[in-house]
Amino acid sequence: MKVTFNYRLVRSIKNQLFTFVIVLSAAVVLIPLLMIIQFVFREGASSLNLSFFTELPKPVGELGGGMLHAILGTTYIVLLGVLIAVPIGVTCGIYLSEFSKSKISKTLKVTVDLMSGIPSIVIGIFAYLMVVVPLKSFSALAGGVALSIIMLPIIIKTSEEILKLVPNHLREAGLALGLPRWKVIFFIILKGSIANLLTGIILAVSRAAGETAPLLFTAFGNMYLSFNIKEPMATLPVQIYTYAISPFKDWQRQAWAGAFVLMVLILSMNLFARYFLSRIKDKKGY
Amino acid sequence: MDELKQSDKIILEAKNLEAWFGEFQAVKGINVQYFERTINAIIGPSGCGKSTYLRCLNRIHEEIEGASVKGEVLLEGKNIYSKGIDVVDVRKRIGMVFQKPNPFPSLSILDNVVIGLRLQGITKRSILMEVAESCLKKAALWEEVKDKLSSLGTSLSGGQQQRLCIARALAINPPVLLMDEPTSALDPIATAKIEELMNEIKLDYTVIIVTHNMQQAARISDYTSFFVYGKMIEHGLSSDIFTNPREKQTEDYISGRFG
Amino acid sequence: MDISPKDLRDHILKMASLVEASLSGALNLDKSIEEIFELERKINEFHMLIDDACFKYIALKGPAAKDLRTAIAVMKINADLERMGDQAVKIKRQYISIGREILQIKNMALEVNIMVKNALDSFVRSNIRLATDVIEYDQEINSLNQNIVRHHVNMIKNNEMGFDDGYTIIKISKNLERIGDHANNIAEDVIFLESGSDIRHNLEFKAPKKD
Fold it and tell me: Which of B84, B39, B87, B79 is nearest to B59 (CA)?
């Protein structure tokens, strides 16, 4: 009897030790995130005021002003990227899931994997060569193209995965109604996956919205408000960078505020996609 | 007294039909004729090609990677496997209900029923409503859902979902309806409801149903085929097959001595 | 295949009315033997049809409880009705050879007719009491038969009647008594159908379930 008693105790100790190690690992991951959030919050929240969101930068030397142009610019360029990446990405995702055994699919998959590994600054240089040089100017278009390249692999991968999750007998049911394959895909399969697709797109957006390096060579930046697609445009990340390396205390303060806003934006998009949308998906079906 | 309510017209015929998964032959040389407005059951041990054979009749089998078909299937005299025949058209005339109820998840009950028509271009609401009501009535589901046509198809119980799938298949008005073990995923009461509505459906459609439940085949069908390992051992009137089959294999299976 | 217990019952009733017509025609000198033969032909058709229908019904529908008992009872009643039909043909031939009305035979035939009617009624109305009455009444029929036999044996012994006629009358009486037996069987089958009890060799049975 003494032997079994010891064995149970040893097992209980092992369990507790293992649990402790797991909790520690989780903490190691969470703590830096929380530290960053709290740090940026401390530095940036205090500089937030209404004018930050509504005003354009004041001339150098003057206090005050805001990042309205950068906030709008980020929105504009990200939307542009979405307009380019989503149709191409979802279509590729459909192709990969419906025709997964073809040679083109295999090549495409490799390409997508490689694409997601390209450093974002290299993507920026590519967009520079492809758009900025021919147009002879930095532009929001170039920025949009650069971001779309960043978003594309993510959108393709999630679309493919989402469509692969659709049970095959649903496809068969659609085909059995005497519908051509493309109609089954677009009107039945895709329609049922909208929540999931949106999640994928928003996750891609939240990744691209924070990219700075590619925008340096493409949208470049602008101190003024612009909605011209062929002209340089301000974006939050670049604006933060510009202000942060400047010698002006006021600008540095605004950089913190911008960092805070950008972080909140991206985090909330992420949370929205993961939790809110997944609840809608649960209500709707699979 | 044995006047089965059928014409003597052959509506569907298989000639030397074979089905392959790559190099493996799942269905071997089937020759059979189906009469209009009859219920035809296909029975046999599991995994012996019954479903594969059925799926050749509406050309769904070939959608599987590596799958192929040899031989002919004649719908009203015309071979559906001829070159130049549009697969999509074939499937409009030979409908299918699957084993697992599979209403489209993002669509309402009404939309589920009419989607086949709507995507063919018929969008007039009055026509769609008429078809929906008539098909839901044939599927014995109308009374239960007439007040909640806009709720999701997936909000129904399993048995109701399967009846919804039957209504959906009937909506495009195919002369032939294939059913692949439609009640095997349902409880006995839901099963009984579907067997009941088969008698109604028989008045307007020809049904070919694969079932692993012999008693079900005996109860509802006019003709029965017995399949073993991809071969059709026997085909005939159900009243003959279940009282005095010609082949010993059939008799053994029906008496529960093998299979 | 769409056979129901109701169909089986309807078939029996049609056959029964043919049998009753045959029986009454057998003892009616105005009816020709051809008419009886025609009825007999139809009765035999029903005989095969009903057995086939019951067989298929059981094989295809797998009935249980009352439905199963109905199918089996119908098959048995079918056999008894067919035998009654045969008896009617025999009686017709025999009565024609006598060529005249025999009062005792006529009376016995009336009683047998009532017994047959009640047996069939008990089936139609699912009435166990009526069926029991029929079974008890069989005794009466047996006595009537014995009386006729005794009476005519004496008449033959006393030369009051020729041997051929006398013997034929005895045969007719015997056949009528057999018809009574068949009616008795039908009543027993009805009790089996309604209560599930086999009372054939004793009279105790379970109370029937309420419908």
Answer: B87
Give whole-number Cα distances, C131 to B162, B206, C187, in Å.
48, 47, 5
- Residue A114 and residue A56 share a domain: yes
Number of other residues whose CB lies within 10 A of the CB of residue A42:
11
Task: Answer yes or no: do A144 and A233 share one domain.
Answer: yes
Which chain B residues touch C60 with a CB distance below 8 Å? 218-219, 238-239, 242-243
Entry pTM: 0.79
The 10 Å Cβ neighbour count of residue C210 is 4
Query: Rounded to 5 degrees, what angle do the CA atoms A262, A266, A271 make?
Result: 145
Instruction: Give me the architecture of the B10-254 domain, per CATH.
Output: 3-Layer(aba) Sandwich (3.40)
CB-based contact (8 Å) between B216 and chain C? Answer: no
- Cα–Cα distance measured from residue B202 to residue B222, given in angstroms and rounded to the nearest whole number: 10
* Overall residue count recorded for chain A in this entry: 286
Say how far apart CA C211 and CA A64 lie, in whole Å. 94
Q: What angle, rounded to 10 degrees, do the helices at C5-26 and C65-98 form?
A: 10
Beta strand B223-228 with B206-210: parallel, antiparallel or unpaired? unpaired
Q: Which residues of C touch B239 (CB under 8 A)?
A: 1, 56, 59-60
Structural contact between residues B176 and B38, judged by C-beta atoms closer than 8 angstroms: no
Question: What are A58-99's pLDDT values in tens digits?
Answer: 777 677 777 888 888 888 899 999 999 999 999 999 999 888
In 3D space, the residue among C116, C118, C182, C106 whose CA is nearest the CA of residue C144 turns out to be C106
What confidence tens digit (pLDDT) does each residue in A133-171 have? 998 888 889 999 999 999 999 999 999 998 888 888 899
